Structures are given as C-alpha cells and as structure tokens.
C-alpha cells in the first residue's frame, strides 16, 4: 500500500482535531453564557437594578453594588489613563530602542501585567492603606484614623496600577498606527516634537486612548482579588459619598453571595442576576473596545 | 532698531519653545520611570511586610522559615503529620507544603486542559481556517478572556462542580479538578493569543517552501510552522502557567479550600493565592500570621516574575529568529 493513504488520513485527523479544539472552546463559552443568561434573565427587573439588598441579601436589588462599581472604575480611569497615555507616548514617540530606560520600562510593564491580582491586593494594603493613608493621617488629621483604612480611593488607585499595562498596550498600538507621513508633514510645517505629538499624533490615536480606557474599565470592573482588603464591603446601609468611604462592588457581591450566604438556595436567583449584570457590563465594554479597534485596524490598512 | 527688537523677540520665542520641549520630554520620561518605580514599589512593600518572617524574634516564636518548608512533628509517632497549615489553633502550624502542592495540582489540571486546546485552536486559526472564520474566532476568544474570574469561579462553584461530581462520582464536590477546569478556561485565551501571534509571525516563505517540497497543509503546519513558532508557543504556555499560579478568585470559590497534603486530584485543595485571600481579612495586623501571608505573597510575586521574564525572553528570541536579526 502506498504511503499516500495513511498520510492523508493523518492529515484529515489532524485538521479535524484542530477544528474540534476551536469548537470545544466556543462550546464552553456558549455553555457558560447560556447557563448564566438562562438563569439570570428573569431576575433583571427595574427593582433589582435600583433597590438595595433586603432580608439578609435574599430579596431586593443590587443598586449599591452597581453604584460602587461605577464609582470605582471612574476614579480608576482618572488615575490610569493619563499615566498610561504618557508611558505609551514614551514608548512610541520618545524612546530610543537601544537605551536601558526603554528596555527597563518595557520589562516593567510586561511584568506588571503578570503580577497576580492578589499581590496587588497586598500591595494596596501595604502601600496605599498602611503607608500613604497612615502618612496622610499623621500629616493632616493629627493621627486620627481617616485615610489610613480601606477606602474607595485606595481601591481605585490599586486598580489603576493593575490596569496600567492594558492602557499602555492599547494606546501604544494606536500611536504606532498613525502614519509617519503625518509626523513628517507636521515637522515640515515647523511644528516642534511636542506640538506634533499632542496636536497631530495623539488626536489621531484618540480611538486607541478610548479603547484603552474601556478595556481598563472592563478589567477593573471584573477584578475582585485586589480590592478584597482595600475597601470592598459586604453590606453598607449608605452609598459611598467620600473618598475614604468603603463601598459595595458587583464582583465582590458575587463572591460574598456565593460563598458566605446563610441560605444558598434563597440567594441563588439574586446571585444569577448579579452575575448576569456583571457579565453584561464587562462584555458590553469589551465588545465596544473590539469594535473600535477593528475599525482602527481597517483604517490603518487603507491608510485613512 | 526694530530689527534688533525683532531678533530679541525671536530669540526669546525660540528659547521659550526649547524650554517647553525640554519640560515635555522630561515629563514623559518621568512617567516611564514611574512605571518602573511601580513594579519596584510593589515588590518592596509586599516584601517589607514579609521580612519579619526572616528576622523578627517575636515572629520566630511561632514560625521560622524552616518550619514553612521542612517537615515538622505535628502528629503522634504512630501518625506523623509533617506538613500542616493551621495558623489559627492552640499551636499555630505554618507549613507551606500543602499550599504549594495544592497550587501545583490545580495548575497542572488547568494546563493539561488549556495547552492542547489553545495550541490546536491557534494552529487551526492561522493555518486552516478561511479568513471569515479566523475573524470570527478571535473575538470569541477575546470574550472568553473578558469573563471576570469571579464569574468563572461562580460557574465552577454553582454549576460545574455538580456536573463533574455526577460524571465522576467525586467524594468532594469542590476539588482540584473542578477548580483546575475552571482555571483552564481562564488560561486558554492567554496561550491561544500568544501562540496565534507566534504562528502568524512565521513568514509566508516557510510555508511556500514546504508546499513546494510536496508537503500537505497539515504536515506544513505541524512540521514546519509549529517548530518555527515554538519559542512563542512555549512563551504562551509559560505565561499561562504564571497566570494560573496567581489566579485567586476561581480557586478561592471552586477548590474547597482545605489544606490537605495529598496527591489525589479529587480531594479539596487550597492554593497559595486563595490562602491570602481567605485569611488576610481576619488576621491581626502585625501578627506572625499576617507576616506569613505577606511572605506567601512575596513567593507568588517572585515566581510569577520569573515566569514572565522567561516568557518575554522567549518571545524576544522568536522575533530575532524569524526576522534574522542578531543571529
């Protein structure tokens, strides 16, 4: 028998195996989403989205958790986007690829992306709460416990450090997609380097800045481990109004409801509802980012 | 007279411009230094709280570095218990071995699931799939990557655990396999994305050369493209491993959290990361237990840092190999 037949059979088998892998991944995603949407759908009512939890979290809604999450990611965005944009500008516009500073910064950002989220939690507690917070208390509040405890501002800052690589990668990609001709034209008109960057390059990379911000928000909204000890609370009767208040958060709410509930069956519908809201929030943000980025890629390819 | 005034005005304009350029440039550089400072700060402030485990005599009354890693006599001579993690008890016991073993078990399950699936899927995407399908698969994986780990943990805890228990008849509903499978889902996008990048980076000419020699598409993919992209694929595996080791919420919710020293995958496990998450909130500030938890954090940081360093080095090597620079 010629070796052609088994070879082609093996080819077929390999191709099908690879296709099967893709199918399995898609199926797993489908099963998870299906299960959550199917069980959570009926929970999503106006009351669920706008009321506070009642009766030991077995009734009522999740409004404080939604509010806390939104507040957290907004504050985080304020901290992370400017820093992320500046580092991305450094990578794309200023850095000399051979310089040690470039290599060190690149390595630092890569490693920052790989630090386990729970370590960010330890860092937030050790640095922001214990070191900065206590320091602020000593300097401005005569040592009275004001900022030296878990609080919204420390959670937002911790989350900002965690999401920094996300912003940098996204903005840098957008900056590099701006054609060199734009920069040349700007220089030819007598503009300086900083003028070129801030008035020509950056405005054209605005969608990348937007994508970075959105991806950071999506990531921040989904992370729980970093805020376990820096400000997330099980239940609060009031919404947070000051920077040093604690807050409720969607992801933390999911964790608490599913592991520390006194009556698992009674909280299950609410739990599914909360998961669905969290998932919808992160997916919507991710889809927006994907859509903006694919438009950006098409734009870069056609030289628009 | 007026030319002189103009010259002066122009000179001051140029000076102002130069000054502004200088300030902007230095500010941007400062931000880059800030990014380096952050990673240093993270290490310093986590290690600072872990340091007393090494030197503090008060801490040493309860725990020493040897006790963290070496076998101790916690049981009776008939039933010795060399490795026990039980920080809250009459005699606090701080052996990290059950936690290291637990982390290893869950990570192993996750990698065994994620590696073949992610790499095969990446090969299918770059080598076999038509363009439209390729464009459809990528967003699906990005969506998978976008699922918050707390949601995966929830799914594993509430749904997957029961399915697996019915399927395999486990004694414990929450175990290493359950947590490992859920964690595999979190790792798949990392390995897939990096492998896919590496496979795409292999030049067209490699494939054309293989086809010209009469190789089939499968042979080309398996014997030419994959070996060429291997450092990148391996980097994906290394980075995925790092992610799995540090992953917290999934194991915290889905592993059962019992610090048992056993090689059985169907028993409950507790990982390093879950231990920090579960215990730090209740620990007394400055107590030996508190410092040991930060010590665990330092261990996690160091291990993932090393893995990341290794991973990015491999990606660099792949890039050099494929572009032919520096070789």
Features:
heterodimer; A: 304 residues; mainly alpha; MetI-like fold; 2 domains; two-stranded antiparallel sheet; globular; B: 327 residues; 75% helix; 1% strand
What overall form of chain A do the CA principal axes indicate? globular
| Domain unit count of chain B | 2
Radius of gyration of chain A (CA) equals 24 Å
Tally of discrete structural domains of chain A:
2
Helices and strands in order, then pairings?
The complex is a heterodimer of chains A (304) and B (327).
Chain A: H1 4-40, H2 46-50, E1 53-54, E2 59-60, H3 63-94, H4 100-114, H5 117-140, H6 152-177, H7 180-188, H8 193-204, H9 206-222, H10 250-259, H11 264-301
Antiparallel strand pairs in A: 1-2
Helix pairs in contact in A: 1-11, 3-6, 3-9, 3-10, 4-6, 5-6, 6-9, 7-8, 9-11, 10-11
Chain B: H1 2-50, H2 52-55, H3 57-60, H4 65-69, E1 85-86, E2 93-94, H5 97-128, H6 131-146, H7 149-168, H8 176-201, H9 204-212, H10 217-246, H11 249-254, H12 272-279, H13 288-323
Antiparallel strand pairs in B: 1-2
Helix pairs in contact in B: 1-13, 5-8, 5-10, 6-8, 7-8, 8-10, 9-10, 10-13, 12-13
Polypeptide structure, described:
The complex is a heterodimer of chains A (304) and B (327). Chain A has two domains: 1-43; 44-301, MetI-like fold (Orthogonal Bundle), CATH 1.10.3720. With 304 residues, chain A is mostly helical. In chain A, α5 (117-140) packs across α6 (152-177) and α9 (206-222) runs antiparallel to α11. In chain A, β1 (53-54) and β2 (59-60) form a beta hairpin. Chain A is built from eleven helices and two strands, in the order ααββααααααααα. Chain A has a two-stranded antiparallel ribbon with strand order 1-2. Chain A is 74% helix and 1% strand. Chain B has 327 residues and is mainly α. Chain B has two domains: 2-50; 93-323, MetI-like fold, CATH 1.10.3720.10. Helices cover 75% and strands 1% of the residues of chain B. Chain B has 13 helices and two strands. Chain B has a two-stranded antiparallel sheet with strand order 1-2. Chain B is flat. The chains are: A mainly alpha (304), B mainly alpha (327). At the A-B interface, α1, α3, α4, α5 and α6 of A face α1, α5, α6, α7 and α8 of B.
């Amino acid at each position: 028998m010629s070796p052609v037949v088994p070879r082609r059979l093996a080819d077929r088998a390999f191709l099908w195996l690879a296709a099967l892998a893709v199918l399995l991944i898609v199926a797993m995603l489908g099963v998870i989403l299906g299960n959550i949407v199917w069980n959570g759908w009926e929970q999503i009512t106006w009351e669920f989205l706008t009321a506070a939890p009642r009766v030991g979290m077995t009734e009522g809604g999740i409004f404080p958790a939604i509010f806390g999450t939104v507040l957290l990611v907004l504050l985080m965005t304020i901290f992370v986007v400017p820093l992320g944009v500046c580092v991305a500008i450094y990578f794309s516009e200023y850095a000399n690829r051979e310089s040690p500073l470039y290599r060190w910064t690149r390595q630092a950002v890569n490693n920052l992306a790989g630090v386990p989220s729970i370590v960010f939690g330890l860092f937030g507690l050790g640095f922001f709460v214990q070191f900065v917070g206590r320091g602020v208390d000593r300097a401005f509040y005569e040592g009275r416990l004001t900022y030296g405890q878990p609080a919204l501002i420390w959670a937002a800052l911790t989350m900002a450090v965690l999401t920094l690589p996300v912003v940098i990668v996204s903005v840098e990609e957008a900056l590099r997609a701006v054609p060199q001709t734009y920069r040349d034209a700007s220089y030819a008109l007598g503009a300086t380097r900083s003028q070129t960057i801030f008035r020509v390059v950056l405005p054209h990379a605005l969608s990348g800045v937007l994508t970075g911000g959105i991806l950071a928000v999506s990531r921040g909204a989904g992370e729980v481990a970093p805020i376990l000890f820096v400000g997330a609370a099980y239940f609060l009767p009031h919404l947070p109004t000051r920077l040093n208040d604690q807050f409720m958060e969607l992801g933390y709410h999911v964790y608490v409801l599913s592991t520390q509930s006194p009556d698992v069956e009674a909280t299950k519908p609410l739990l599914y509802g909360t998961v669905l809201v969290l998932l919808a929030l992160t997916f919507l943000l991710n889809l927006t980012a994907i859509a903006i980025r694919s438009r950006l890629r098409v734009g870069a390819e056609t030289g628009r | 007279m007026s030319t002189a005034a103009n010259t002066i005005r122009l000179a001051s304009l140029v000076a102002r411009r130069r000054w502004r350029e200088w300030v902007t440039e230095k500010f941007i550089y400062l931000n880059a230094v800030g990014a380096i400072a952050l990673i240093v700060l993270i290490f310093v402030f986590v290690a600072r709280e872990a340091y007393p485990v090494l030197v503090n005599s008060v801490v040493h009354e309860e725990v020493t570095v040897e006790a963290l890693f070496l076998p101790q006599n916690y049981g009776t001579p008939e039933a010795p218990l060399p490795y026990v993690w039980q920080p809250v008890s009459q005699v606090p016991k701080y052996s990290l071995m059950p936690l290291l073993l637990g982390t290893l078990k869950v990570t192993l399950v996750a990698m065994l699931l994620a590696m073949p699936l992610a790499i095969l899927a990446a090969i299918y995407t770059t080598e076999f799939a038509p363009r439209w399908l390729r464009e459809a698969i990528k967003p699906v994986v990005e969506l998978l990557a976008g699922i918050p780990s707390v949601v995966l943990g929830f799914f594993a805890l509430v749904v997957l655990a029961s399915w697996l228990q019915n399927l395999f008849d486990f004694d414990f509903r929450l175990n290493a396999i359950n947590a490992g499978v859920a964690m595999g889902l979190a790792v798949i996008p990392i390995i897939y994305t990096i492998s896919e990048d590496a496979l795409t980076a292999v030049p067209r000419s490699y494939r054309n050369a293989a086809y010209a020699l009469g190789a089939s598409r499968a042979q080309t993919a398996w014997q030419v493209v994959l070996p060429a992209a291997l450092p990148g694929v391996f980097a994906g595996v290394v980075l995925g491993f790092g992610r799995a080791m540090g992953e917290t919420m999934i194991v915290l919710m889905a592993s059962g959290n019992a610090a048992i020293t056993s090689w059985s995958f169907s028993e409950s496990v507790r990982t390093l990361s879950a231990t920090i998450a579960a215990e730090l909130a209740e620990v007394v500030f400055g107590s030996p237990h508190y410092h040991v938890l930060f010590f665990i954090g330092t261990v996690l940081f160091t291990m993932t840092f090393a893995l990341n360093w290794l991973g990015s080095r491999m990606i660099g090597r792949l890039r050099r190999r494929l572009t032919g620079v520096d070789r």
